[in-house]
Amino acid sequence: MGNSDEPVYVTKIGPVGRVVLYTLMALMIAIGPVLAVVDIADRDHRWVTVLIGIVLSAFLIPFGVIMSIGVARSARRMRRLREVGIAATAEIISVKDASVGEEVGVALGLRVSGSGFASFETTVKCSSNAALHVGAELPAVVDPTGTAFTINGRLIRAANSF
Known about the structure:
alpha+beta; 6-stranded mixed beta sheet; transmembrane; membrane; transmembrane helix
């Protein structure tokens, strides 16, 4: 979904999942500075540990911040879908093999339609499931501005939402 005009598929992340993700991101952000500060406070001053802390900080802090922004954006989109989302139908119009992380999954071509928004076609990568075939209809919820959508139910375990 490289085009910014295309709706974004929003993956549901529950409150426990968000807490776990934010905790991991906080640890990523903190590990480098903690290593550096602990070694500086130590009287032996092993500068290698300080250097490792600085290098970890340079890589993990930006990565953790970017991941935090992505999780927060996904949570905002899901909250908006719950508040103002319009019920829709996502018809599967194509199924192709696709790489989903380290697994082999499928790329579903979807035609999402309903009342109150312009119908659109998009692609969602997800884990393979025998129930996902051309012609199948999945319940969906769409942001009335057409900027985001999600599929209800447990048939789709999406590859990525950020």
